[in-house]
Amino acid sequence: MTTRPRSEAPERAPGDMALACYVYGVVRADARLPEDLTGIAGGEVFLVRYGDLAAAVSEISPVQALGTRDDLLAHEAVVEALANETTTLPLRFGAVVTTADALAEEMLAPHEDWFLDVLDDLGGAREFAVSGVYAEDVVLREVLREDPQAARLRERVRELPEDAAYYDRIRLGELIVKALDEKRQADTDELIDTLEPYSRAVAPRAPAGEDAAADAAFLVADRDLEEFERAVDRLGERWGDRVRLRMVGPLAPYDFVPPPPGGGN
Amino acid sequence: MTVSPYEGSGPVQRSSGSALVDVVDTILDKGLVIDAFVRVSLVGIELITIDARIVVASVDTYLRFAEATNRLDLYEKGGTGLPDLVGELTEKGTRGGAKGKTKGMLDAARETVGEVLDERKERAEERERRRSSRRERER
To answer: By its UniProt entry, which InterPro entries does this protein fall under (chain A) (predicted)?
Structure first.
């Protein structure tokens, strides 16, 4: 086992402006990088190793703000390429340190055992995010069918001129929002109950948007993937026109990295 | 409103994750936080991620529409062997259905553009309001 950080940074002539080091993810030291992997702003991605660990990094200008569409795409492309090769602990977008060697000394060296344990835990599995969106007309009809008060209000609102029905319309909308909240809860439970048996772990996600029906991330072992996908398809069929299901993945286990060691922030 | 650039025509839409709109919130909000591990060598770099979310969402929507429209051309020219490409569009089984769907897409594209513009307009109006109330106070 090496005890000194060993980086493969391209050599640069003295006098160059000091570049900073953008960090994509942490992998095992024996991970192989896909060839010609370029990162943010076209920087060449390389591994900086410490012991059995390595971090994938590239050099960037320390003064340039980050967050353009290209920056995000580059981050995602590098993490995805890594995750396709090996178990990868992804860093949140925007991780920048002074140098690759400093990264090895300050991040990898003191937490080597912690990282290795986490890599073990997440090995052989990848993340899939499954979310559902309501078909508005179908689900609104459902609410009116199930809630007589909402149905009555709707009749009244239809008969009155717009101004006169102002408060009724507010009340009707309020009832529908409440009914949708309940449906969202029930549908999220159903999504999780259906797919949990085929996953190693589940992380519910905050539903995005008013038409969100359910949203959760699943850590799926590679050997269970086929069964998991079949279960997603069955749920999609069961929900039919009511909820459009969408599965994103395989992803690096963004939702399953544990809190940092030592209970830090 | 759905435009599907994704493969497969089953009940579930699939995306590999390379569609940025699907993962933008994940890469901005999830994953290991560098500050928890690195303090001394941390480089505080400016992140312009609020704009990024809006821009990514709209640009990706535009690209999806462009792509979907493109496929539609192929379909209308009588291309064959494209069942997956047009699976979403031919759900109704007729060309009329496909056309109806296209119109829906264009409307939604307009909505999306409209929303972004409205949002900008609202922000501008809000600024204007604040400015004028400040002026009133100063008087």
So the answer is: GvpL/GvpF
Cβ distance A248 to B35 less than 8 Å, yes or no, reads no
Domain edges within chain B: 20-138
Q: What are phi and psi of B95, to 5 degrees?
A: -65, -35
Output the CA torsion B6→B9→B12→B13 (10° steps): 10
| Nearest partner of B53 among B31, B25, B29, judged by Cα | B25
From the list B84, B100, B31, the residue with the least C-alpha distance to A260 is: B31
Q: Which of B57, B72, B67, B53 is nearest to B113 (CA)?
A: B57
Comparing A222-231, B57-66, B113-122, which segment has the lowest mean pLDDT? B113-122
A-B contacts at Cβ under 8 angstroms: 165
Q: What is the ipTM of this complex?
A: 0.82
Contact A90/B29, CB-based, under 8 Å?
no
Domain boundaries, chain A: 17-123, 126-141+183-256
Using CB atoms, which residue from B15, B42, B56 is nearest to A248? B15
Task: Please report where in the chains the tokens 């991970």 appear, as a residue.
Answer: A31
Q: At the top level of CATH, which class does the domain A126-141+183-256 belong to?
A: alpha beta
Q: Are strands A89-90 and A53-60 parallel, antiparallel or unpaired?
A: unpaired
Is the pLDDT confidence value at B117 over 70? no
Confidence (pLDDT) at B125: 60
Is B16 part of the contact surface with chain A (CB cutoff 8 Å)?
Answer: yes
Residue B67 at interface with chain A, using a CB cutoff of 8 Å = no
Per CB-CB distance under 8 Å, the chain B contacts of A77 are 18
User: Which residue among B17, B24, B34 places its CB closest to the CB of A72?
Assistant: B24
Q: Decide if A67 and B38 are in contact by the 8 Å CB cutoff.
A: no
CA distance A95 to A217: 23
Question: Do residues A27 and A81 touch, judged by C-beta distance below 8 A?
Answer: no
Cβ pair A76:B20 closer than 8 A: yes
